[in-house]
Design the sequence.
């Protein structure tokens, strides 16, 4: 494929590329009702039609390609079969050329930043496809005022994030990071017989936020014979509770007081900002561990530092903080009873591929008049 600012995109042979027939299938295509349109087949037919008629593929703005935060190079070849990708640097150097062409924005790692100035420079923008589930970095009301739709990728992230939640619980309870340091230290001459962790099997797990990811965490925890409590805005159906052996706590306070492990799996909203603060930490057992796999600001970090220092709770395991990464002199980094990972909940090759593919489906749906599978509303 070739692309120029004023040129047309076509295959070298004038026919549809054979790789269209290898568009990977999505495991959840038949799950949500809207997917019964067989979106995969529709995308293939539309792309074939575009190429056969020698029309331009849709222009899609992204922040960058390759590098630390850019679209993965291994995704780029696939994306370019369906879109004319325009990097932000290229766009800024020639807004006159690209401004009216761009129909969608492909947000990867929360970039490019979408503000009023950018929206005003894209008069034909139809939609913004966001990487991941969280959209707290987007001003949905502002974007909606321009008539632009927003989508995310909720189904693509659930398994990988739930896996990490369980991994953090196990790593913290069995003190794996400390254990690794002891095992590889040049100062270690023998292993201490009294160096002990805590059992996960039979312990009580409290899940705050029982959406897609929270429910998958519960399914995994059931395999450890854990007692599962959960707090959510809406109670799950009785059959869903029974399937994982979960008990609903109408009051979050009850969950905090009874849980050996408390896992946070909520969206970041004004209501969940600093959901866990000094009061909530003091309600937890002194032997409890706090695990966060959603967003950093859900926890009051100053209160958490104090709670860990004073042994109000035993430990914490965080995949998210604020900011990210933490300043190198932050007090959380000096504590031994904490594990911090670099926001890797969805960081598997398979999950990121599914996220990219879901974004492609969302863009094609929005630009071609299909019901949008994963639209996010203000």
Sequence:
């Amino acid at each position: 494929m070739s692309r120029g600012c004023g040129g047309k995109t076509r295959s070298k042979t004038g026919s549809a590329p054979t790789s269209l027939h290898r568009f990977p299938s999505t495991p959840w295509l038949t799950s949500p009702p809207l997917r019964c349109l067989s979106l995969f087949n529709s995308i293939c037919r539309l792309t074939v039609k575009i190429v056969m008629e020698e029309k331009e593929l849709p222009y899609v703005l992204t922040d960058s390609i390759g590098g630390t935060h850019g679209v993965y190079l291994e995704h780029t070849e696939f994306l370019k079969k369906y879109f004319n990708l325009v990097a932000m640097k290229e766009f800024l150097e020639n807004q006159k050329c690209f401004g009216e062409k761009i129909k969608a924005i492909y947000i990867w790692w929360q970039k490019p930043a979408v503000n009023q100035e950018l929206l005003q420079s894209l008069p034909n923008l139809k939609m913004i496809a966001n990487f991941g589930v969280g959209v707290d970095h987007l001003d949905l009301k502002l974007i909606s005022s321009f008539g632009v739709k927003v989508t995310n990728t909720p189904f693509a992230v659930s398994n990988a994030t739930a896996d990490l939640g369980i991994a953090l619980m196990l790593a913290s309870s069995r003190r794996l990071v400390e254990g690794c340091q002891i095992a590889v230290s040049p100062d270690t001459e023998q292993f201490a017989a009294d160096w002990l962790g805590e059992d996960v099997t039979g312990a009580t797990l409290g899940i705050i936020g029982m959406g897609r990811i929270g429910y998958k965490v519960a399914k995994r925890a059931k395999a450890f014979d854990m007692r599962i409590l959960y707090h959510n805005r809406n109670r799950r159906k009785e059959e869903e509770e029974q399937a994982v052996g979960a008990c609903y706590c109408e009051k979050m306070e009850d969950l905090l007081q009874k849980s050996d492990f408390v896992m946070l799996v909520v969206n970041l909203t004004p209501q969940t900002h600093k959901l866990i603060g000094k009061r909530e930490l003091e309600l937890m057992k002194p032997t409890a561990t706090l695990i966060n796999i959603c967003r950093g600001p859900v926890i009051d970090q100053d209160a958490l530092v104090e709670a860990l220092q004073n042994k109000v709770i035993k430990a914490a395991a965080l995949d998210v903080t604020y900011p990210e990464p933490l300043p190198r002199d932050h007090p959380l980094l000096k504590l031994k009873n904490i594990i911090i990972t670099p926001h890797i909940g969805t960081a598997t090759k398979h999950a990121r591929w599914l996220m990219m593919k879901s974004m492609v489906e969302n863009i094609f749906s929005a630009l071609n008049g299909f019901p949008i599978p994963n639209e996010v509303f203000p």
User: Anything to note?
Assistant: The radius of gyration is 23 Å. Residues 60 and 104 are 5 Å apart (CA to CA).
